[in-house]
User: Fold this.
Amino acid sequence: MKPAAFDYHRPNSVAEALDLLARLDDAKVIAGGQSLMAMMNYRYIAPENLIDINRIAALAEITEEGGNLRIGAMVRQRDAQDSPLLRARAPLMIEALDLIGHLQTRNRGTIGGSLAHLDPAAELPAVFSAHDAVLHLASANGAREVPIGGWSQGFMAPDLEPDELLTAIAFSPWPAGHGHAFLELARRHGDFALAGAAALITLDRQGRIDRAAIALTGVDMGPVRLDAAEAMLAGQVPGAELIAAAAQCADRVAGIEDVHASRDYRRRIAVVYTRRALELASQRAASGAGR
Amino acid sequence: MNEPLGLSLRVNGDAVTRSVEPRLTLADFLRHELSLTGTHIGCEHGVCGACTVLLDGRSVRSCLMLAVQADGCAVTTVEGLTPAEGLSPLQQAFADNHGLQCGYCTPGILCTLSEYLDINPNPSEGEIREALSGNLCRCTGYQGIVDAALAYVRSAQ
Assistant:
């Protein structure tokens, strides 16, 4: 027995889960368990109550409504990778999913679990940041929406109250033909990235950048949008000099450091990967490869 | 609710019903309740891949699941991948190509590859190495394992 003893609850509906969250003290929600089970095996955490949301089918749906994509929190990373809807409409997410852990962890790990765990080097928060996504939360007292920009409140600390459940994340996909790229540096495939960059670009008929979005992972406690770089790119024809100058904005993020890499090194890597992601995204936008 | 909870599942084709504490991992359930000791436990936090089994045909780390979460599922372990007599063609390829030394990581690798080679029956060497990135081996340097997988792929063509 690795985890400390807990009371196990297995709700079949969101309402049942919210009722449990409202009633129980020291409760943790388990989705895919690919981070939580490791922490419990270590007894790094020992919640009194474990609420298993794996049987709530309503949380595992991917839908498109009114032009918005809505991904249930319990959607497994592997199922997201295989989703024809996401493959067609959210290629940035598909590219990032391939870099998350391994086949065995994606088979269990969920979209919502990654967002709620909020590891600084996680890929999905950067993807959703680039997409200006909105997180949907629910509690027994009602529903709440949080824009991805306000989700990270500190180190692995999302804006999620103890009685709240992350139910879905929604965003408006970019138009067909947009360019995308997700690139990261990791020592081994599937390892946590030292730094990574997500880029989205659309070009107008004259080949100028109509809209750009750049988000970084691994360099700060949560995903970082490079607004300054996006402003530099808007309305310009993408060229090597412009992209290099825009990528330099990644050198100004606050930065985190740990045993794996220093703050300065992460920033330098972020500049390089931002440049490469912008180059690849603009090439793809020019060739309409995202179409 | 900390009391034992019933679970019913299929393990290697056999129907199994037990009552276990919710905190029992699937890996420990397989080893200690069912005596299926082919599933090995290494790191117990989802890094080494030694405990990989197939859950409804998909490879998963059995140390990162509770046994009660497998209720209603079909689990296949390395015992289930092994024919009654001799070895499976993939296992034989490992034997022929020095794909194992101590053998600790081997059951997990066989489970990973049996799912992966179904998804991608004709992988490149690079793709095999990427597919095995979640299974650590400290003996072989991976070369024998990759050779074994490639030999199996060639023989299955």
